[in-house]
Amino acid sequence: MCYKDPEKGIALLLEVIGDLKSTHGHTALEDFDHFCSYSGLSEAEVGQLPFLWTKYGYLSAWKPADEPGQNSAVAVTGVSHRPEDDEIAVSAFKLQVGMLLRDLPPGTVAELDDLCIAWWNGHDLVFAHLCDDDPGRIEEEFDLDDCEWHERRETFEAWLKEPRYGSRAEVRDWVLRQRRQ
Description:
By secondary structure, the chain is of the alpha+beta class.
């Protein structure tokens, strides 16, 4: 993941976004250039690192125009039939969920579906299955690999459109204990 490296994050986002256009026919970089012109933001004035973080944030929030028969969230997450596109889509999904969770209080979880949650542990995004017979308990952590992604992709993408959060004392305790170590 590239949580501490805005250049890697920008490269990943641009790879995912590709040549998609906004509703006005502009690429994400053209829109960012316009934002800089309009706002007066310049790398020379703010410095390289703040400029890169701003660009990273802007590109993370940028949305392409809806194409007929295609949902913009699907376009941004890079759903495709090529394996390398699935890898990019998984990385983009992790990046988006991680960015949403990392500033929330410890113990906050993304309720991705009835039996799957995710949380930010202070360094990485953690995914976990909930117990089938007791969704109040965490069964096990898992890696978001091809199998999990293909099985739950539509649900995960729907979550990005309407994120749902919860709070779990168990997760809060784990995260706080890790931070003290």
